[in-house]
Amino acid sequence: MAGTKEVRESQLDMVSIRLVKDAPLMSRKPVKTPGDAVELLGEFLCKMDREVICIINLRTDGCPINCSICSIGTLDGAMVNPREIMKTAILSNAASILMLHNHPSSNIVPSKDDAKITDRMVSVCEIMGIPLVDHIIVGGDNSKYFSFKEKGIMPMKALELQDDHTKINIDAAHAAEDHVTTRSRKRR
Questions:
Q1: What is the pLDDT along the chain (188 residues), one digit of tens a residue?
Q2: Which fold has domain 27-159?
């Protein structure tokens, strides 16, 4: 009996992921402008009493595939990680993504953290081959919004990938990372 228990403990479960097509929950209308995205989710986000970060996964024609709530935060902030943002994009076979979040204060001016996550996601999305087409902040009523793309902030500086392994600097800080992250990496 002891031998059987040891075998079970050393086994690794196999899992598989399948995309199951359900009836659309959103619109079949393409999202071509920030106004289209705000029309789609603005009212929902403006009713929230805390920050909520959503991703709309888009097909090649700009039609929404689905929407994913990546983070529900507090009155004045929400934490989000790129892997949480990209998870549904990959599983949905998205051609591109659109990030939206609300500011319950109705002040739609981007915070320093809003700019940092946008910069980071532009780089992550470029590497993944699933472009971030815009980051939109809504507040107050859904007619008030801030679009990084509309304001000319996106696309941000294009990511340059090194093709010579001798020139790769692993310890160099990236624009969206703070110095604490870099220091913690050096300690490892």
A1: 555 555 556 777 777 766 666 655 556 788 988 988 888 888 888 888 899 999 999 999 999 999 889 988 888 888 888 998 999 999 999 999 999 999 999 999 999 999 999 999 999 999 999 999 999 999 977 678 999 999 988 765 555 656 777 877 777 655 444 444 444 444 44
A2: Cytidine Deaminase; domain 2 (3.40.140)
Token pair listed for 24: 């659309």
Domain ranges of the chain: 27-159
Burial (CB count <10 Å: 0-12, 13-18, 19+), residue 73? middle
CA gap 156, 48 in Å, rounded? 29
**Which pTM value belongs to this model?**
0.72
